[in-house]
Amino acid sequence: MSVMKRMSLIFRAKANKALDRAEDPRETLDYSYQRQLELLSKVRRGVADVATSRKRVELQINQLEQQSGKLQTQAEKALQMDREDLAREALTRKSGLTQQISDLQAQHAQLQGEEEKLVLAQQRLQAKVEAFRTRKETIKATYTAAEAQTRINEAVSGIGEEMGDVGMAIQRAEDKTAQMQARAGAIDELIASGALDDVTAQPGDDIARELDSLSSQSDVELELARLKGLSAPQAPGQLGAGQQGSADPLSKQAEGETPR
């Protein structure tokens, strides 16, 4: 097989597949029904045209028959008046009209036969069109129901194209959600362990924390000294803490001196 034949075969195959996907049986049936209606309309117009021609021939026959009868009457009157020449002329004209009437009657019979055939064909075609219309609507309803059932089954099973896209979107959303949750958990662990400082802290927060730490240590030392003072044993007769604190240091030194 030549390259051109292969290309032509591939093109026809792909075109046929594309047309098959694009074709809607309901639209095809409607189009076929419309074409049949157009054909039926043409047949009806043909019947009307033949009937019109037949009627025109009938009118011509009637007119010629009236003229023939008038010539017959004229011929009889001419004979009564002893005008044989006029009677012969009238009868000669009548003979010509008789021949025309005979030809028109033959044409009339032919037209009437064609009209009857067309009327019969029209009736048969109309019956077929009506039957096709009933079958068309039945097929369309069946196809629509099958299409709806197929879409429902695809939606339930999730194998439809649209439902497949929805499933992929849900899967991507779940993956992103899991990734964000993992990232948030990792950041929380790093902040809790001190490995990651809070980037929202102000520049002066380090100094404030150091001052707070020193103040806390000073408070601890003061509280510890107070507790030590309360827990130390006191000598008998020793002054209270307030009196002892107000004693003169010189007197304490004098009392501490020994005689030489």
Features:
single chain; 260 residues; mainly alpha; 0% strand
Describe what you observe in this structure:
α2 (25-80) runs antiparallel to α3 (84-157). The chain is 86% helix and 0% strand. The longest helix has 74 residues, at 84-157. It has 260 residues and is mainly alpha-helical. The chain has helices at residues 3-22, 25-80, 84-157, 161-193, 205-231, 241-246, 249-255. The protein contains 7 helices and no strands. The chain has a domain at 49-143. It is rod-shaped, with a radius of gyration of 62 Å.
Helix-strand topology string: HHHHHHH
Mean pLDDT: 77
Tell how many strands the DSSP assignment holds: 0
Count of DSSP H/I helices: 7
The largest sheet, given as strand count, sense and whether it forms a barrel, is: none
Report the oligomer. single chain
- How far apart are the termini? 145 Å
Radius of gyration: 62 Å
Low-confidence stretches: 238-260
Beta content = under 5%
